[in-house]
Design brief:
Length: 474
Amino acid sequence: MKAKIKTSRKKSVASEPVIVFDFWSRTVWPWLLIVFFVSTPLIFISGYTPEGRILCTVYDLPKIIYISAFIPLLGLFYCIYIYRKVSQLESCINFMRRNLGVKIFLLLLMVMAFSLSGSLVVKAGLYFLVNYILLVILGFILAHLFQQNRLRWVAVYALLTSLLIFSGLGLIQSTGYKFPFLMTILGPASTFGYRNPAAHFIALVIPFVLFAAGRHWHLWRSSKRVPQLIFFIAFLFLGSAALILLFMNYSRVAILALMLEALVVPLFWFMSRKKEVKESVSQVRRGGRLLVISLLMLIVIASLIMVFPNSRKRVKRSFNKFQRGGIARLLECRYYHWGNSLMMIKDHPFLGVGLGNWSYNYPLYFKSFAYDPLYSYKMQVRKAHNDYLQLAAECGIPALLLFLLLWGRQFYLLRYSTRADDDGEDWRLPILASLTAFSVIMFFSFPMQMAYSRMFCFFLLALGEARAWPALSK
């Protein structure tokens, strides 16, 4: 009798971690991901001073504080999570030991740390280094969690909920109504401070809107359930509203990113399907239809440019500048930022001027290549408007090569099809589209210098690594 009591106690103790693990997987992590991905794009401060003047110098600060505070919270819960489940701890150690992306980024962090040796302002470099360390922790946690397809969808639906609120504020604001807590800009609501990062947010998230719509379309076709059709229509409306806001915003970089998404994704889908089904002649016809669809999407984008006056004027002005002065005139002040940054790289090719120290060194270089008309004692230039050049200038050419290796790895991982492990869903399509958009935005703007888009970069890295891990771990 005593032996039976002992064995029953052992069984209850052994089953307790499993119960706790299921509770975390079904309840705790979904709610944490929902809170994080819904709230982060919407965190803002008032756009006005008490005197009524526009204040836009600290628009990024609330998101920095919020993300920096939330990541340690996620880390604490993650430690408890893997401690309660031995198999998850083993999986975590195996992922860290065998994943090449983690090793590349740790090496990049070391190079960033070494660059601080030549910094003019060491505290600024430490500030950025701590931010990147926190984001690496976030990316690792998400990459481990996103190996469960269900948690990926939780994060995506939370992100789309945030876009829905964001688009609603933007549409109301575009009618002329002035929110007392938001700055008055045309197009998207200024929870991002001003119009360009707001438009970039839309361009990065649009692929996931269409991916979710496609998911519910397939679910409706297989089950014929009305809720699935309602979700499909709702996501189409959300995508339409977001596109309207993007073109009202007239951001050239966001429009260019959108056009490249429309070209790259259908072509990739056709090429990947052609390899999987080589013997089917109808597949070639299907690929032809997809190319026609991509051209139609480009026509739609061009039509939207013509419909919205600000976008039309902006694009027309860019063509006129190119005709009058070529690339230098088209790039505007970026031409001077980039040229002077190249001179900075030439003088500091290996360790750079120090992480986070580009703006402190620019006064020494603002006329080394060509005199920067934007720079004066009244206005300081703080960003290179090209994240690739700014990384090379701050941390050296080796850091840029490591980053390009890490970024290029994400495109390389797209060669692995993991639909069998992902409930038949091809996550490569939204990841490719968003990676393409982010690559374009990094070339002409500074998303890696801003809190939310920097976090979104690690979200994409985590999605890419988690999706491909079943194929890589074999």
